[in-house]
Fold these 2 entries.
Entry 1:
Amino acid sequence: MLVVQKYGGTSVGDLERIRNVARRIAKYRDEGHDVVVVVSAMAGETDRLLQLAHELVEEPSPRELDMLVATGEQVSSSLLAMALNAMGYPAKALLAFQIPIKTDELFGKARIRDIATERMREELKKGHVLIIAGFQGITENGDITTLGRGGSDTTAVAIAAALGADVCEIFTDVDGVYTADPRIVPKARKIAKISYDEMLELASMGAKVLEIRSVEFAKIYKVPVHVRSSFSDEPGTMVVEEDESMEKVLVSGVTYNRNEARISLYGVPDKPGVAAKIFGPIADAGIVVDMIIQTGRPDGRADMTFTVPKTDYKNTLRLVEKLSSEIGIEKIEGAEDIAKVSIVGAGMRAHPGVAAKMFNVLANHGINIHMISTSEIKISCVIDEKYTELAVRALHEAFGLDREPEQEG
Ligand code: ADP
Ligand code: ASP
Ligand code: MG
């Protein structure tokens, strides 16, 4: 079997844990499997590097920032390879440029374009365990990029897809995907099996246990993903194609996301082309706008509110301020202390009652809803950040997620 494994930051957080991971990999080798490992930086390292840069200058250049933060994974991958070698298991650490893992030029949130497999196959044939630095890539010009926070998951699934691995195991500090973040909801339950689509919604809505692009890759290339703990042998959560039994669950999870900020534009001229003028430059800057609400006003103007990642907040404000006089926006205002709480479930397709119930639960807890968005299988509400935990727990309980799954109909 060819197994791709990914170990997150906590799993390689110190030398003892690195040894623990090495022992785990050794067991797979003893069973005769080929193993390709992707590692994150040691816990806290990426944050530490980012903070260093931001202490030095207010807005570090994205290219240099990627040069800096990519080093975290170089450290952990080489240490893990050393540990394995010392145990008598030949291993080799590889950085993105050595494979290469080619990406586009969007520093800080680059997308993987191509992964060459020749070098990896060669090394595997020699009997090496490959330890690949996650999170990083290389552009056509040879510049180092990173894939965005949590991006090692994406490296792992993309490599599993490229190599046609039998499974991609994501080893982390929880033993699977839960009905809500177990750190916030102690009563959350582990989900044994979840569809790519539901996992995609959970991930996009904030369940950071899997990075969203990793789920996109898994879905497109049908990579079976197994999310499990690096501290136990318990089976975790299988992320696979949807089947009959999954359809019946009304709500499968509650998520929250505190990483977005809100921007409101008041008194925007209400005529064709204005939205395009506003959102064109934002898209060109590689900024992903999430929710958008536009409300018409009696005076022929409109108010517009939208959300962007917090990391893009200042940049987006600057962009709209630049457009302000050209377009004629009366007032621009924004807030960073918001959170988005969502409920996700394949069974809520065509179930209007679910939304009403969600609004009721929030209302009963005195939580005001600022924005709402829905898709076939999720409903999200933007609320004040300070109510995040209260909202998540209340929704988890109201939809019966601490008990057996609710059935449709
Ligand atoms: P790693 O460093 O291994 O990539 P992450 O911190 O990125 O780990 O992801 C694991 C964390 O995701 C858990 O510690 C947990 O707090 C959080 N999490 C959020 N939502 C969920 C969920 N629905 N199920 C499991 N974990 C979740
Ligand atoms: N080290 C990177 C981060 O902290 C990537 C990852 O851990 O997946 O975001
Ligand atoms: Mg992660």
Entry 2:
Amino acid sequence: MNHLADALLAASRQRPAQTFALETDGRVTTNADLLTLSGRYANLLRELGVTAGDRIAVQVEKSLGAVALYIAALRCGAIFLPLNTAYTPAEIEYFLGDAKPALFICDDGKRAALEPIAKASGAAVETLDDSGRGGSLNSKAVTHSSDHEDAARGADDLAVILYTSGTTGRSKGAMITADNLLSNARTLISSWRITDKDVLLHALPIFHAHGLFVGLHTILLAGASLVFLPKFDGNQVVDFLPSATMFMGVPTFFTRLIEHPDLARAATRIRLFVSGSAPLLAETHKQFSAITGQAILERYGMTETGMNTSNPFDGERRAGTVGFPLPGIEIRVADGDGKQVAKGDVGVIEIRGPNVFVGYWGMPQKTAAEFRADRYFISGDLGKIDEDGYIHIVGREKDLIISGGYNVYPKEVESEIDAIEGVDESAVIGLPHKDFGEAVTAVLVARKNATVCAETVKARLKDRLANYKQPKQVIIVSELPRNAMGKVQKAALREQYRNLYER
Ligand code: MCA
Ligand code: AMP
């Protein structure tokens, strides 16, 4: 019995001939194809020495081969560790050093740069190409049987480690169990009425919770199917919307789609649009609804918890809110001591339920600091509950920027900027941006007699940080605003530069 893999593959086993995914070139992958390929990969992983509980780190382009690899890792009982394709070798070095995977799988083109890093962390290296059909993984897998006896894994065994950036600058690996994932997928299927008749137009990356779990798990579990896009492209989404019944995205997807002249015509067959990962402006919700006649369903989640709340499927999907706690998930809005605040007051959102992760990899103290004694997880998001029970996210207690749905922790960017010669100190802030929601912006002070220019700073960060973490603008000032305690006042900076990107 393999708690997660058995459930995710049950419908595919029942209906092997059914389409699992349609690609933009017309290629069809059936459920049987997914079972065959994941079985071959699983046998190969075994041969490569992967055993239950080993980590498999993966930095590859989005492809159906990459999906099958994920399933294969679960079938082997390994712990899957997906990595953003934008991460630089310097960032990859940290993740591999921390997670100590047995195997690292990367794009063919990145092998030369990443193999020494992987070897230093003790990982063997294999590759997958952009199409998901080439690379050493495929050339080795073809000789393997597609029959695989899946490893026994229980509900509480770890299935995935997902790194989320840390407030101190060091990323933390969220340890997620098989049942965290399965219980959440089941809840979403029933809340959003997903059935085997559904077709999800999948345009999200598959290295984060949104695209991998919310998108793929629900579809597999329901026996539904995908139109599989390699990435978000507004024209392609509009072209393929008529072939789908559901669409999921981050707010940037929706602000871009609103600009498309054919959106209204293309959206008529879609029964559900879902937004999450960052706040959807009420204005975007309204515009989208005026164009398509459809109310986007906004929900709220985290890497550590999966999905926590959702606007109702039936009933009012209230713009600017994230709806109600999902069934089986408890949410409280609390003060600094974990005590529930009065209804309507703002506090920190705390979460408890079968969806909540078990802790950060190798960081017991950080784990302990983020849980209350009664097992509520402290999200760091500020919220309130209105008179009708709808939850509003009103801000963040944690110093975090969300740009186009990706999290950027200012501390990490500041540490890199502060290490540049001639920089005295820096403050990294998120400013309103029409496309990305918030734009990473650096404000810095140069050392006395040093000459530092914005272009040099940007150039120095290129090889160090993933592209979406790099500041869109670098501003050089003579001093940073501070309060009486000497703490940099980021709120004052955000106010001063709020129109920088002229939203
Ligand atoms: C790309 N660029 C960005 C971002 N993405 N800059 C800021 N923020 C971004 N998110 C920059 C690149 O550095 C590059 O800059 C330029 O945009 C073009 O790059 P390209 O890759 O072509 O961009 P794109 O394809 O237009 O990408 C934008 C995107 C993408 C489609 C919005 O970022 C995306 O797919 N985001 C989804 C993120 C996501 O899945 N989040 C879920 C996290 P230059 O030209 O200067 O080099 S899971 C989560 O948050 C929880 C669990 C939840 O609740 O869901
Ligand atoms: P991540 O660490 O990438 O999983 O990002 C989780 C964070 O994204 C949450 O803690 C929230 O700050 C934010 N988030 C996710 N969904 C929403 C939403 N619908 N509205 C506002 N913020 C959201």
